[in-house]
Amino acid sequence: MKVQLCDIQVRFGHLLALGGVSLDLRAGAVTVLVGPNGAGKSTLMGVLLGLVRPDSGHVMVDGRPHQGLPRMEREKLGYLPEAVAFADNLSGRQVMRFFTRARGLSRSRADAVLSRVGLAQAAGRAVRGYSRGMRQRLGLGVAILSEPALLVLDEPTGGLDQQGLTLLWEILSEWREAGRTVLLSTHDLALIERRADHICVLHDGLVQAQGSPDQLRRDVGLPVQISVTIDDDAAVGALVAQLQRGGLADVQIATDIDGRHRHLVMETAPDDLLQVLRIVDGAPSSVRDLRVAEPGLDDVYERLLEVTR
Asked: How far apart are CA 93 and CA 123, in angstroms?
């Protein structure tokens, strides 16, 4: 199922919630919506889900325009809301079987999904006794119950411990490998960084930037950090002088407590990285360690938002 949101505009009275947002949701890709509170992420998801009617623009499904996902396509959708709520007096198994009946699925599918999200042992317990993370897992189970072609997750990392996060990453990988589509919103960019194929940054209802993580890093141009450990003072001086002559990097030097090694921490423009590494490689006998750290997505995000302030 190919889905495109085309020039979506939504107003609530005098408030412009979305000011012409376009976004392609590619099959086999995880698309991530990020932005501050009030940026329009939930409104955009609401348009896709058919809960918010756009004032202009449309949703393209397999090449045909609609106001939102048509009923037939909504049956192929799985949704995890930001605030997961279930009847507290029901057990996890009863909740899952309710949704399997609603979707015309077998009872065995309910048990299989409960096991998949790590709730098999707690399936007979009332939801009132579930922790926040367990409720989040149950909501995720409901979302993937019918193995939907489009999975929409609103802040899916909330309340999850490391085991729960690992489970979420596995499911995202499964959906990608099966050629299905995932759209999620999050504030946890550091967590989602290695799982995102496409990122859309919203601010005040407008697309501030979008692209792959690497593309956004290139567009922002934040410096790359290089850390080098050297045990030869003469090599340190020569290396620093060569870097500074070329104007390639800002260098800071620190010394081990025992005085045996010098640590050079330098920042360089992404376009100069290879040249800096070639210069460092010129003193291989004295280099004991070399590490390169690209700016994290949270740094990229902060820089993108600085433009709007």
From this structure: 5
- Give the Cα separation of 69 and 194 in Å (integer): 29
Q: Cα–Cα distance between 50 and 58 in angstroms, integer? A: 11
pLDDT band (50, 70, 90) for residue 265: confident
What tokens does 169 get? 């990453």
Phi, psi of 195 (to 5 degrees): -105, -5
Q: Which of 261, 291, 298, 288 is nearest to 273 (CA)?
A: 291
Tell me if residue 54 falls in helix, strand or coil. coil
pLDDT in tens, 191-230: 888 899 999 999 999 999 999 998 998 888 888 888 888 8
Compute the distance between CA of residue 105 and CA of residue 187 in angstroms, rounded to an integer: 34
Alpha-carbon separation of residue 209 from 14, 32, 201, 273, 279 (angstroms): 25, 12, 5, 24, 34
- Report d(CA 90, CA 185) in Å as an integer: 29
Cα separation values, 154 from 83, 226, 238, Å: 9, 36, 52
**Can you tell me the distance from the alpha carbon of 198 to that of 1, in angstroms, rounded to the nearest whole number?**
17
Structure tokens at 140: 């995720």
Contact 68, 150 (CB under 8 A): no
Q: Determine how many CB atoms are found less than 10 A away from the CB of residue 201.
A: 23
| pLDDT confidence of residue 192 | 87
In this structure, what DSSP letter does residue 119 have? Answer: -
Length of the chain, please?
Answer: 309
* Closest C-alpha among 226, 238, 232 to residue 275: 226
Query: DSSP letters of 185-202?
Result: E-S-HHHHGGG-SEEEEE
Q: Are 87 and 95 in contact (CB under 8 A)?
A: yes
pLDDT at site 259: 59
Query: Which domains does the chain possess?
Result: 3-216 (3.40.50.300), 220-304 (3.30.70.260)
The Cα 35–Cα 208 span in angstroms is 9
